[in-house]
Amino acid sequence: MTKHSLTFTTCPIHSEADNLTCVWEFLLLGLSQDPELQSLLLVLFLTLYLVTMLGNLLIILAVGSDPHLHTPMYFFLSIFSLADIGFSNSIVPQMLTNLQTHSKSISYAGCLTQVFFSYLFGCLECLLLGVMAYDRLVAICHPLHYQVIMHPRLCGGLVLVTLFFSLLHGQMHCSMVSHLTFCTEVKIPHFFCEASQLLTLACSDISSNSILIYVVSVVFGGVPVSGIFYSYTRIVSSIMKIPSRAGKYKAFSTCGSHLSVVGLFFGTTTGVYLASAISQSPRMVAVVAVMYTVVTPLLNPFIYSLRNRDIKRTLLRILRRLA
Questions:
Q1: How confident is the model at residue 1, as a pLDDT?
Q2: Residue 310: in which H helix or E strand, if any?
Q3: In whole angstroms, what is the distance from residue 26 CA to residue 176 CA?
Q4: Is pLDDT larger for residue 219 or for residue 275?
């Protein structure tokens, strides 16, 4: 492992001052050390990755090619699919490379890049779910004013705002990790670089960083969750005022796909945090993390395509043309 001497200071885990050596390469322990199982995992995750890319690209192609889908709801859906692609590409290719080469190493710069983009696209997905909930709120509670309220300028502005805060979120975590000091060989019990894992392996003081992560998580997670909860409270209240059962079903069916994705997204992320808090096995936490890093981006396009008649019709037309 390559190390570079940086500055003369005292490392908290050493008893005396010496040259502080900071690692420039980390080891990702991954999901398994068994070579045969790694080959099986390589085939499995490569298949899931390719299906994820294809599914999300088809959603973007469907929205872009069909003028009937040029509405705010499908515009946000296409941006969400882009975020899914970005999130998968920030994590899965490095995992596939390590599985294929039977290597566990990732460079310091590569680790920082992975931290930045995984938190950027993860935050972008979270904020977009809040924006999409607001879109459904306007569509159901103010149907006659929907086109006036959700005009293209507002939709573009909402996406730019979510992107700005996502960039800020990613930069904050990247900057925090870049200021950590690692004095020994860093073995990360995970298949990608995660800020919380790196904090526990640092030999510098992490108290302020822990507080920062907590505050950032509450703000960037709490705001969209609160927005989603408020939107659906208003939506349910509005739907209950519809006299006919058919009208209630039709109104609520437009929210089905979004609710499914919201449940999947926040359910899997909550599961990971609970697993890390309860389980004493880092390997178990890594296995649970597969759900929100690999499975969720895979399922999102299927949820929207199978539950949405317009998307399904457009995708079938595209597939017929390709055939």
A1: 40
A2: helix 309-322
A3: 17
A4: 219
Pairing of strands 3-9, 25-28: unpaired
- Angstrom distances, CA of residue 266 to CA of 129, 135, 136, 208: 10, 19, 18, 26
Q: Does 38 score more than 70 pLDDT?
A: yes
Angle between helices 296-307 and 35-65 (to 10 degrees): 40
**Six-digit token pair at 235?**
């939506």
Give the per-residue pLDDT at 23.
Answer: 59
**Pair 195, 115: CB distance under 8 Å:** yes
Structure tokens at 3: 């190390």
Cβ-based neighbours of 33, under 8 Å, separated by 6 or more: none
- For 269, which DSSP code? H
DSSP 145: G
At residue 161, what is the residue type?
V
pTM for the full predicted model? 0.88
Rounded to 5 degrees, what are φ and ψ at 294?
Answer: -115, -50
